[in-house]
Amino acid sequence: MPSGVDLDSPQMTTAEMTRDEVAAEAAAGADLTGRRLNGLDLSGLDLSEAVLRAARLNGTNLAGADLTGALLDQAWLIGADLTGAKLSEASLFQTQFLKANLAGADLSGSRAAANFTGADLTGASFVGADLSADMKNQSMGLMRGVLRQVRAEGADFTGANLMRADLEFARLRGANFTNADLSMATLGGADLSGAEMGGARLLNADLTSTRLNGLVKVDEAELAKARNLDRAIRDD
Fold first, then answer.
1. Alpha-carbon gap, residue 22 to 178, rounded angstroms
2. Considering only CA atoms, which of 162, 80, 168 is closest in space to residue 128?
3. pLDDT for 183-227, tens place per residue?
4. Which among 184, 173, 232 is positioned nearest to 208, based on CA atoms?
5. Using H for helix, E for strand and C for coil, what is the string for 110-176?
6. Which of 118, 148, 175, 227 has most Cβ atoms within 10 angstroms of its Cβ?
7. Which residues make Cβ contacts (< 8 Å) with residue 80, sequence separation at least 6?
8. Is the dihedral of CA 165, 123, 169, 95 positive or negative?
């Protein structure tokens, strides 16, 4: 998260529009870039293809909302409720989802180099999503999917690009990583117990203190390409 940001400021805690105004503007295809929408109840709204770049949506209720194809780059959704929301094909570059609830959300096909630290991703779909690092734009540091300390049991990462993603201390029990690319990802302290790993790529992934019990369809030769496998926790 960018340093020096005052999360208690009016920019981060108040709203300048009502639910009805947001719905009307979204229906008209308006640009909601940078608007303050903190704490609003926008649950179930159709915000597909909406432009919400750098919008403030901290603590906003977006449960069941349709954000398919929405542009949410650099938007703030700290503590937001996106339970069951549709975010497929959305652009989520540098989006802040700290401690947000995305249980059951659909982020398939999204560009999700976002910060999900402490978020609830239980049962969420990242099928075909791109959470990999942006190697072309590093002026502000390495922009990548950050899933530190997330709860993501049963999440689906089938075919997802997680190259260089940060999954340290993530709870990933029973998650599906079939054909996912975890090359150079950091998985220190993560719990992958019972995860499905068929076709997953693990070249130089850091497995320090990673729990690997009961992996499904894991390719042992591919697992051997990871770093610090000897420091992983594996009883089977």
1. 38
2. 162
3. 999 999 999 999 999 999 999 999 999 999 999 999 999 999 999
4. 232
5. CECCCECCCCECCCCECCCCECCCECCCCECECECCECCCCECCCCECCCCECCCCECCCCECCCCE
6. 175
7. 57, 58, 59, 60, 61, 62, 97, 100, 101
8. positive
* Contact (CB, 8 A) for 176 and 217: no
CA–CA dist 59, 65 (Å, integer): 14
- Determine phi and psi for 25, rounding to 5 degrees: -70, -40
- Confidence at residue 42, expressed as pLDDT on a 0 to 100 scale: 98
Which residue type occupies 22?
V
* Cα 21 from Cα 116, distance rounded (Å): 28
* Euclidean distance between CA atoms 235 and 9, whole angstroms: 49
pLDDT 10s digits, 120-154: 999 999 999 999 998 766 545 568 999 999 999 99
**What pTM value is reported for the model?**
0.95
The pLDDT value given to residue 137: 61
What's the pLDDT at 138? 53
The closest of 148, 87, 144, 151 to 123, measured between CA atoms, is: 151
Give the per-residue SS3 of 3-62.
Answer: CCCCCCCHHHHCECCCHHHHHHHHHCCCECCCCEECCCECCCCECCCCECCCCECCCCEC
Name all contacts of 175-182 with Cβ < 8 Å and 24+ positions apart.
178/217, 181/132
* pLDDT score, position 227: 98
Residue 58 · residue 78 · CB < 8 Å: yes
